[in-house]
Amino acid sequence: MALSILNNIPALQAENELAITTAAANKSLQELSSGSRINSGSDDAAGLAISNGLNANVAALNQSSLNATNAVGALQTADGALSQVTALLNRSITLATEASSSGLSTSQSTAIDTEFQALLTEIGSIGTSTNFNGTALFSATPISAFTSDGTTGGTVSIAATPGVLTTTSLGVNGQVLTSSTAATTALGKITAAISTVSALRGTLGATVEQLQSASTVDTNESQNLQTASSSITSADISSVVADDTKYSILEQTGISALQQANQQAQTVLKLLQ
């Protein structure tokens, strides 16, 4: 083999292989430190695009689940208020039934009506003061939850409208228990109001179940997509550790080969002695 001082081909080859090994070793160390096999677009452009898309879906689903949970809280607050209204109406039924008797004195009828009017005032107060996160619940504005998986076709809005809650809306405004005749009329109105409240509570309850189901579906879908994204981006630690060990050995042998290639070039000097 001809000896040359212009080009040390073995040394160049050893240096090139050492650079390749060092780059691979650095990549394996980056995967170990980050736990991810995709740390830049150059690692896996297609995988990175898919993972980013899945992560966007996960973000939308997580927020959708939170939206549904918040709406459930609002509806349950409204239902709790309606439960109290039902209790007040049931007490009103008792008073109206008692006042329908013709054997009561004027003072007794007045006392019964006074309590009844206080109950009606409290019902009106519940309707105006019940709120969730600073928003009045009993109004014409629907309580809604927007849910989405991040796609146009995966958008759903679930809503229920408690409506205005007043003694007028319940049909008991202006009712009195000052006479047996008036009490009998009020009794029918109160009974109807109880049915109205019960129907509304049923509607709210059905919507709560729908929202809870939607929240569960969103959570499960989010978990599945996170798993899918992780399977794309996560590094196989056992494989990376094995590669890291291999590249560490190759770096050492590469350095040794480069040293030997450089030493071979030194033999040219012996010819000049």
Describe the structure.
- This protein is mainly alpha-helical.
- The chain has 2 domains: 9-35 and 251-271, no CATH class; 45-233, f41 fragment of flagellin, N-terminal domain (Up-down Bundle), CATH 1.20.1330.10.
- It is built from 6 helices and 4 strands.
- It has helices at residues 9-34, 45-99, 106-129, 180-233, 237-265, 267-271; strands at residues 131-132, 135-136, 143-148, 155-160.
- Strands 1-2 form a two-stranded antiparallel ribbon.
- Strand 3 (143-148) and strand 4 form a beta hairpin.
- Helix 1 (9-34) runs antiparallel to helix 5 (237-265) and helix 2 runs antiparallel to helix 3.
- It is rod-shaped.
- The two termini are 20 Å apart.
Poorly predicted regions are: none
- Ends distance: 20 Å
- For the record, the CATH architecture of the largest domain stands as Up-down Bundle
SSE succession? HHHEEEEHHH
How helix-rich are the residues, as a percent range? over 70%
The amount of beta strand, in percent, is: 5-15%
How many domains would you count in the coordinates?
2
How would a textbook summarize the main sheet? 2 strands, antiparallel
Just give the CATH class of the largest domain. Answer: Mainly Alpha
Mean pLDDT: 85
Short description:
With 273 residues, the protein is mainly α. It has helices at 9-34, 45-99, 106-129, 180-233, 237-265, 267-271; strands at 131-132, 135-136, 143-148, 155-160. Helices cover 71% and strands 6% of the residues.
Name a few traits of the molecule.
about 70% helix; about 270 residues; 2 domains; 4 strands; two-stranded antiparallel sheet; mainly alpha; 6 helices; two-stranded antiparallel ribbon; f41 fragment of flagellin, N-terminal domain
